[in-house]
Amino acid sequence: MSAARLIALDWGTSSLRAYRLGSGGALLESRQRDWGILHLPDGGFDAALRGIAGDWMAAMPQAPLLACGMVGSAQGWVLARYVDTPADAAALAAGLQAIDLGDGRCLHIVPGVRRPGERPDVMRGEETQIVGALATEPALAARCRLLLPGTHSKWVQVQDGRIAAFRTFMTGELYATLKAHSILGRPAREAGAVADDAAFDRGVAAVQGAEPLAALLFSARALVLDGRLPAAHSLDYLSGLLIGDELRSALGDDADDADDRLPLALIGEPALGARYRRALAAFGRGELMQIDHAAPAGLWALATAADLLH
Fold first, then answer.
1. Positive or negative: CA dihedral 182, 183, 186, 188
2. Which of 123, 137, 178, 261 is surrounded by the most beta carbons within 10 Å?
3. What is the pTM of this model?
């Protein structure tokens, strides 16, 4: 315990992850509970914090506490207001929101990032992963694109170490909704879904033409009815359609000349990342970097920028 310098938390909607970090941000220990902001234990946020990290807090009374994610949203413990793009680690550190824990300690909350304009966009939690990715791979800070797949996938443009712009794609939520609540998910629900890479690849290939996604989605049912796609494989085909359409749109921002393409790096869970890598290869973009453990690295970098590590 004496080697720890920071108690860091990645606190999302459905889960809570805690990290005990040592000098230089070394990951000494990690824990996870199903205590996202919508699934708190009796006693609420304070009980969740002490339930996952109370022993660390007792053993390390001088270690600061820093959290990112939906815990700083309007539905969270306290609202940590958005920082507008372009945003870097210094701007995020300046926007930390402190919660008095009542025992002489504070929990600091990382703000989210907002892209202003006619069609605004927001992120909360991903900004910390981005800071961590740039701290882990400094060569990307000059100019790159970062892909953070998930329920709400983020495609981020980085310029001079700052989050310059980003777009959100609701790919994961659309898939979950169609799977559970639409006629497109019924065949696999009834037959029992079976993973099939070929069906996924077929979906990705289908969206590489000019036809819009809305006109392609029903093919996930029509192909089954026509006997050309096993019902058990239809969800992987649907996943291919949705992820493929995300890539078709996001990669359309790239220059036509491959030499002008920005370096692309992927941040996220390995299983979902592997699916995106497979789809990206079909679009001729297999040359991307995978960055792991971005959240704890980002929390350490932000604690350093905010001068919390005395």
1. negative
2. 123
3. 0.94
> What class, spelled out in words, does domain 4-123+295-305 have in CATH?
alpha beta
- Range 169-291: architecture per CATH: 2-Layer Sandwich (3.30)
Contacts of 296 (CB under 8 A, 6+ apart): 8, 10, 19, 21, 25, 27, 30, 132
What is the residue extent of each domain of the chain? 4-123+295-305, 169-291
pLDDT at residue 257 in the model: 45
Q: What is the pLDDT of residues 125-181, one digit of tens each?
A: 999 999 999 999 999 999 999 999 999 999 999 999 999 999 999 999 999 999 999
Cα-only R_g, the chain? 21
Alpha carbons 146 and 247: distance in angstroms, whole number: 13
Question: Quick check: do 4-123+295-305 and 169-291 share a fold?
Answer: yes
> Residue 40 to residues 49, 233, 296: CA-CA distances in angstroms?
10, 36, 22
Residues of the chain with pLDDT under 50: 256-257, 259
pLDDT of residue 210: 87
Q: How far apart are CA 10 and CA 68, in angstroms?
A: 5
Write the DSSP symbol of residue 81. P
Does 111 sit behind a cis peptide bond, omega within 30 degrees of 0 on the bond before it?
no
Q: Which two tokens stand for residue 171?
A: 């790919």
Instruction: 188-193: list long-range contacts, CB under 8 Å, 24+ apart.
Output: 188/231, 188/232, 188/233, 188/234, 188/235, 190/231, 191/230, 191/231, 191/232, 192/232, 193/232, 193/234, 193/235, 193/236
CA distances in angstroms from 68 to 56, 86, 203, 285, 302, listed in the order given: 18, 19, 35, 31, 10
Identity of the amino acid at 64: P
Q: What is the C-alpha to C-alpha distance for residues 137 and 295, in angstroms, rounded to an integer?
A: 14
Contact 112, 127 (CB under 8 A): yes
Residues 6+ apart with CB under 8 A from 224: 187, 230, 231, 234
